[in-house]
Amino acid sequence: MTAYAKVIRSKNSGPFELTFDIMFDADAPYLHVKKSGVINVESVARAFSIAPAQVLVCTPFDAARAFKITIKRPVSSGDLQDRDVYGCQQHVPLTRIQVPA
């Protein structure tokens, strides 16, 4: 299995949303993943077991060699059921998206 992204991170985007950055350190892997089309609303929804309507943003950002993804939080930040008040431990499902070679 090849790792394409250099950094995958998550953080709060306000109390009701999580935002994710998938960042690459070179053009070739970024363009390969972008052209594959594997990072899209449907694959993100599947990764997090949420409805596609819960994916608010899923877009490549060429200038930064990155993808920006924003989803609705399942519970608001700081809620009694919240397990990650800062949203910084939520990126793992994105690491399981398979990119064709």
TrEMBL record:
Residues 4-97 form the DUF4387 domain. InterPro entries: DUF4387. This is DUF4387 domain-containing protein.
